[in-house]
User: What shape does this take?
Amino acid sequence: MSLHSKRSPSACTRRVAAVWVSLFLVSAQAQPTGLLYDPEPPVDSGYVRVMMATDTPKVSVVVDNKVRVSSLEKNQVSDYMVMGAGMHQIAMVAAKKTVASVPLDVARGSAVTVVFTSPDVAPQIFVDKTSNNKLKAMLSVYQLASKNETLDILTSDGTTKVFSSLAYGKLGALQVNPISVALIATMSGAKTPLASTSLTMTQGGAYSVFLLPAKNDKIAAIQVQNKIERYTGK
Assistant: This one.
């Protein structure tokens, strides 16, 4: 007599079907409700961030009639927004009124910073430099503080000059070692600090320092680590 009983074909079929149903239910229950990864931006995307360096206390950033940043404080820079290549209309809106706007032709693969320094004048538009060297950090300085004099950027002990003779509306950018460093801004050729800031940089990171006018003819140095908005494809 056999140790294994024989089953009819129909019984085997029912058993296999039950196993597949069971596996399907387990798979369905294990499937997360969200996405494991966000979608990649389209290949023709550019990246644009904005700053409102005026006396307007708070604005919304509207791109092509769609709110992209709901609240941006004075002298705060937004994350880079993902935009398709081509023309876009960027507006800064406060109390439902447009206080400043600019048309911008976004190039594929570009990174751009738009700084509104006054509602009555065209914004400063910078084409940012990027780096693929993951062992270095990227440091960028935007000179928007002194229209009549150029500025130097040095380490706080004065021994290393990072950027020389930055004129108003100019950008200085270079790859640096990922270290913690204190920087000062001075009039070109001088040693007296007009502004100072400290950075803790890491490998592959990108950092920006915005030099802006402050009260009593002083200079404010605002530093940020560059970020890209979370892209959801919507």
About this structure: The two ends are 68 Å apart (CA to CA).
